[in-house]
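Batch job 17 of 40 flagged for manual review because the log was empty.
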Amino acid sequence: MSNKTHETMLEMFRQSRDEFISGMMLSEKLQVSRTAIWKHIRKLEAAGYEFEASTKLGYRLTFEPDYWNLECLKHVLSRSSERKRDITLLDEVASTQNVAKALAEEGAPEGTLVIAEQQLNGRGRMGRSWVSPKGKGIWMSMVLRPSMPIHCAPQLTLLTAVALCQGLREATSLPIGIKWPNDLLIEGKKISGILLESSAEDERLKYVIAGIGISVNLNAADYGDESLLERATSLRLAAGEPLDRERMITAFIARWEHLYELYKREGFEPIRELWQSLSVSIGKPVRLTTPMESFLGTPLELLPSGALSVKREDGSIIPVFSAEMGEPH
């Protein structure tokens, strides 16, 4: 099907947004078979469009993705930030982390953004995959060049979690909280993940790549496996309506820059306090799984090092630097 026919088909649906169009009408208007119509509906769905299908009534367009526009994105970011950013906008990529890392190695300045419509191999902590369908989420990586020693890198992860939580709360009014160390949840279900990967030289950070994945406009079908919906959701599913992805990015970037400057002026303490105020982990019994053991405990506070202070069942209090946190079954 040609691009012209493709656009004609979409325009028909846009003009009849709340009404069904029969397969026969589409077939006659576009002069293709009804089988070809069905196949193209599948292709449009793969591109992020959503349709309601009825054997009697035909098809109805229910959701249209808002694809990124580079100039519009630069414009909206310039309104929320004094920093002029290099932005690489990609249609499809294995992982924005890989592209951002390559740019960082080539000398890309701090603040460089890599944004993709779709990730084919998005990844989170512990090497887990991340559902990243086309046109429905924010899949991006940011190049950072902080002047600090290696051991401070975890603090940047926590800072990013605070900035993202604050930004998304502001943009959506949804009750978003942080699960240690950096997962964002709504009513116990994950809507965003953060992955920071760093390169160091002479005990100092050379650069850091901050990977951000936000499930903005995914619907239930996008998750494929229904069991995923027991622990994951999207901003759209939580809000009950589609949301503007540009607004999510600009809100996050504005908060991140504010907190980064605060961190450089006053250190980690104000970030630590903000993180604790947004945490859904503090004071609740959980199961923590480290490379060495799995145990029940209650997180008490975030330590200045970025570790979590945890009270074990026997009453002892220990710092936990890296662990998976789950329900206390």
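Reviewer: the log was empty due to a logging misconfiguration, but the result itself is present. The first strand starts at residue 50 and ends at 54. Unflagging and moving on to job 18.
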